[in-house]
Amino acid sequence: KPVIVLFRHDLRLADNRALYAASQTGKPVIPVFVRDEETAVSTRPLGGARQWWLHHSLTSLTRSLEAIGAKLILRQGRTQAIVDELISQTKADMVLWNRRYDPAGIETDTALKARLLERGLRAESFDGHLLHEPYSLKTGAGGYYRVFTPFWRAFLGGPEPRDPVPAPAKLKPWIGEIASADLRDWRLLPEKPDWAKAFHHDWTPGEEGAKQKLADFLEDRAASYKNDRDLPGREGTSRLSPHLAHGEITPFQIWHASKSPAIKDQNAGLDTFRKEVGWREFSYHLLFNNPKLHEDNFNESFDSFEWISSARNFNAWKTGRTGYPIVDAGMRQLWQTGWMHNRVRMIVASFLIKHLLIDWREGEKWFWDTLVDADPASNAASWQWVAGSGADASPYFRIFNPILQGEKFDPKGNYVRQFVPELKDLPDKYLHRPWTAPAVVLNSANIELDKDYPGPIVEHGAARKRALEAYSRTR
Ligand code: FAD
């Protein structure tokens, strides 16, 4: 009797405990990718950028499974119904999967396990997506952590994360016909216009691409991560986030690779790096305990916040035409590459929420649709953090000045010049505040303000004052 292995966002062979356990049984293995996001109750459909990634990642997984003797079956629909049908067709008596931690995923998989066990079949789930089980870490009072530092202290005080398990060398194939969807019929790739056409310059979806990103990071960037991670004009971070979101690599693999004695860590850059991975854990800890994290204010006093709805301003933000170069560079990087540097994510989110007073949920949704790493926990938790409505939130009076942030973190303007090329000939001195440049400077840089590049859609000082007033009414 065969064993069924369910794939969802764990599109890898290495450190895939469900697949490894299946290979150890000596039974034929049927790997099935289940696309249940459209059908499971309250699941949020994947955004466009993640659909693009999913298409390529499934293509890659199909090939890797073929190389070890198995055929990936693609199915769309309710997990329960798909599993029932496959069991009756193949007489499988065992179903294995790696755990999900989004609320709908937990609900579906809990019901699935109960039903399989009731029928006397074997059902088992494994870790892999997170280093810690979100229900396992408790505060002294028995609750969950709302503040990162004590959470991380508790995590580090616990056992060392387990070692990764190897990829199975060979799988025993299932001999028999099982229907599979054709990936092309899922139409995951954008059609016209193909807004993802440049994504391939930055990304190689799939397990190999993930391994390469980790190796490049550890070799070239780890030693200077602590200093460079805040500079968007440098390739200073790992760019592992979309690979993690699709489970092409696990935090266990990252954790242990970063501790390998062969890696040089001159200035504790890797402690900082692992701590960032810890923020991902913390975000899931919050999501697990607040299933509506992307919808409901964590801090209820924000329910009465007076957001302003302005299609014009929201559109200027989305298209990178706010007149603040660092904000515009970030929003254009997002659109062109499906990713944005963390420092700039904070700046653009703060700008939307505080300068434009647009509801953080609008920004969260836009990121959900456009980020290749869109993550139910990190995205919602980070937006709430910037808004001040979240757990361990940034203080309400911290209103990033987009001019000073640009000058501090992109001092030579590499980042702005890459993504806002119409400003490339402007001297550094004016790059983050083009409207202050004298006419002669603008002329010689070939810029006509409001035509080639917009003037600021809100004035910083006035917007800051308005935000502080709005926040003080909420508190
Ligand atoms: P690195 O600096 O190399 O960090 C390594 C890994 O640690 C990342 O891949 C990521 O998994 C994790 N990590 C790093 N910083 C954070 C953080 N602040 N919070 C949670 N995890 C972190 N990250 C997502 O993965 N998906 C999202 O949808 C997402 N939305 C965000 C929205 C906003 C408004 C903000 C401010 C941040 C958001 N982040 C999100 C967190 C962070 O910006 C990205 O994880 C990071 O930029 C990914 O780049 P990297 O892999 O090169 O990071």
UniProtKB/TrEMBL annotation:
Cofactor(s) for this UniProt protein: FAD; (6R)-5,10-methylene-5,6,7,8-tetrahydrofolate
Protein name per the record: Deoxyribodipyrimidine photo-lyase
Family membership: Belongs to the DNA photolyase family.
Species this chain originates from: Phyllobacterium ifriqiyense
Domain Photolyase/cryptochrome alpha/beta, first and last residues per copy: 1-131
Keyword annotations from UniProtKB, A to Z: Chromophore, FAD, Flavoprotein, Lyase
Any Pfam family hit: DNA_photolyase
Enzyme class of the recorded protein, top EC level: lyase
InterPro entries: Crypto/Photolyase_FAD-like_sf, Crypto/Photolyase_N_sf, Cryptochr/Photolyase_FAD-bd, Cryptochrome/DNA_photolyase_1, DNA_photolyase_1_CS_C, DNA_photolyase_N, Rossmann-like_a/b/a_fold
UniProt keyword annotation of Ubl conjugation present: no
A GO MF term: deoxyribodipyrimidine photo-lyase activity
E.C. number(s) listed in UniProt: 4.1.99.3
Phylogenetic classification of the source organism: Bacteria, Pseudomonadati, Pseudomonadota, Alphaproteobacteria, Hyphomicrobiales
